[in-house]
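# step 3/5: fold
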Amino acid sequence: MAFACLETSPTTPLLLKSSSDTDSDYYDNPHHCKLTMQIQFQIQSPHKPLAILSGHVGAVSCLALCGEFVLSASQARDIIVWQQPDLRRFAKFGHGEGSVKALVAVANRVFTAHQDGHIRVWKVSRSSENVFRLLSTLPTTKDYLGNFMKQSNYVQTRRHHRKLWIQHSDSISCLAVHNGVIYSGSWDRSLKVWRLSDFKCLESIRAHEDAINGLVAHKGLIYSASADGKIKIWGKDRSKSSHCLKGVLEGYRDVSWNSVILCEDGRFVYGGGSDGRIAGWEEKYGETQQEWKLVCDLKAHEMSVLCLCSMGDLVCSGSADKSIVVWRRECGGGLLKIGVIRGHEGPVKCLQASSHSVGGGFMLYSGGLDKSLRVWWVSMESSEVKQGEMVSSNAMQLMKNKDWRSLSY
């Protein structure tokens, strides 16, 4: 049974705040949770802090929304479940060796990717005392036994070891679910495809020349962002059952892509780079093939962009400079800075936006290396620009730079 998200209204205690309140109004509850108890949405500010949730032993590495729950995982292997709307600590679970690198929730299942190279599947059930119960570990024992006898099923790893092709040989850094399959990207440079119905590994792709840091999937296409400076697009041809390369988006030399997102039903692709830049491409359809046109290139942060998320026509970027920048996406794909959110005491590692409207805005969750999960309210209605300016360029001018390339296949 899938959980439905609870509607959050501006009348709940968490979301009410008088204009005279300051950060000193936070208080510690028994669950190590600091909450701002009131907020008033008629204020001029385009964003407001709502809560600081603490309790992780290590840096917060990834976030996910699962119905009424917010899940945050850390480099110390623990996953904390926070219950909305009051954001009280509900449960804690975890398993495996090494930190949790990625989280994704699908219906009543939660998938976690780990540093030990495994994916763990958790079943969510209110009817059990153990709400988050370990269901399976990928690759499954059945899948392993079906492959280990044949020598042809083994591949050479970069550490001169041989492993089954269904196994990741390094940390799994990112997950994406689409069309009944789950995709996993790893520091071993491979992209693997798993069937959701029986968790069988269907395909392993040697996707990049360096670690894969981000994945996103939409309309049959999978976008993988890598430390090799490329965002690759993968899809299936009608005549083939396996994935093939559809396009390559490249940035400046010696720049790692740390994250990738899609906006407006897959029309725009944005990548966050290790040089603090955000680049964006628009998907175009040629006479015989898909093409991607560079529409945005901006210096977004002083330090590396570690994470991106989007909500409507807004894009949020988190950085190693400890800040979150809110951007408004223009019709041509350019980005207009409308606000900077500060509060984290360390680099911002992950961002997650809630799709439920709250007082003309949305809830933004951010996790940082300061071991905290922070909750913000971001306005969807504010059009006032107090800082920055739109950074959008004509693609033909950008393409004159030899370091920028947008290739189609």
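# step 4/5: annotate
The mean pLDDT is 82.
# step 5/5: archive (pending)
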